[in-house]
Write a structure and sequence with these properties.
105 residues, 1 helix
Length: 105
């Protein structure tokens, strides 16, 4: 006849198995959470890049479709001045020699 094993002898082994199983489940859950966060970040970056690409395409299309002389018809900020040539006044500076007074010609 076989004698049944006492329940107290079987409990420690079940407890160890249960503890390892819980640890494995926690590691798997934490790994799944990390993977979900990484996938979420990748999806967000992809959406942002696609939105920027569409925005850039729309802006380029608008620039290409607008008339070329639109910038020339912008009124001047100084209002009505005596220059009616339509060209902006530019000031150019030539090179300056600081030691000009010390030189002898």
């Amino acid at each position: 006849m076989t004698t049944p094993t006492p329940v107290s002898d079987a409990l420690p082994s079940l407890t160890n198995v249960t503890t390892k199983s819980q640890e494995q489940v926690l590691y798997q859950i934490s790994g799944a959470i990390v993977a979900a966060v990484v996938v979420g970040v990748i999806v967000v970056f992809t959406v942002v890049l696609l939105l920027l690409k569409m925005y850039n395409r729309n802006m380029r299309t608008q620039r290409e479709l607008e008339p070329k002389n639109a910038k020339a018809s912008i009124p001047s900020t100084s209002g009505q001045n005596s220059n009616s040539t339509g060209r902006p006044t530019t000031v150019t500076f030539g090179p300056v020699d600081i030691h000009m007074q010390n030189r002898r010609l």
